[in-house]
């Protein structure tokens, strides 16, 4: 019998970014889940949400489209959904089937702050080459652009 011990990837395999949003956590959470397709990818990319179950154990099924018709399917499972506080997700499994691709563990945090809400997104990659590949493609720059779009939506209705 083999004992498995879950271990998180090393910090060298993590990419993260933080954004301060001038809106209360309730508002930020509402925009996050209800308007995801409007901001999840930086323009001109767009996200089509096929299905999202905002609960622990729920699935997400989306497709990201580029300006020239290219597409990328993004599917996975929510390991934890704590409204207005934290979301943990992975693309390692979808609909009870393991992914054939290298996978990611994502952690999103929302925290009340003196200016509104601190939003932090982190991705932990399970292999060093995966981490380098994502870093080399300027993933964090794309995250910052998407977070700017997200903040604009959340702050617009204050």
UniProtKB/TrEMBL annotation:
Belongs to the AHA1 family. Pfam families: AHSA1. This is Activator of Hsp90 ATPase homologue 1/2-like C-terminal domain-containing protein. The lineage of its organism: Bacteria, Pseudomonadati, Pseudomonadota, Gammaproteobacteria, Cellvibrionales. It comes from the Bacteria. Residues 23-154 form the Activator of Hsp90 ATPase homologue 1/2-like C-terminal domain.
């Amino acid at each position: 019998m083999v004992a498995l011990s879950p271990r998180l990837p090393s910090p060298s395999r993590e990419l993260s970014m933080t954004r301060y949003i001038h809106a209360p956590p309730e508002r930020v959470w509402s925009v996050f889940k209800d308007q995801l397709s409007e901001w999840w990818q930086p323009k001109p990319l767009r996200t089509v949400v096929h299905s999202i179950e905002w609960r622990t154990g729920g699935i997400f099924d989306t497709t990201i489209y580029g300006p020239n018709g290219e597409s990328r399917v993004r599917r996975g499972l929510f390991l934890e959904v704590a409204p207005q506080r934290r979301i943990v997700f992975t693309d390692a499994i979808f609909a009870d089937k393991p992914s054939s691709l290298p996978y990611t563990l994502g952690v999103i945090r929302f925290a009340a702050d003196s200016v509104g809400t601190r939003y932090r997104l982190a991705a932990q990659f399970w292999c060093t080459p995966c981490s380098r590949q994502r870093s080399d493609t300027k993933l964090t720059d794309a995250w910052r652009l998407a977070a700017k779009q997200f903040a604009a939506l959340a702050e617009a209705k204050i």
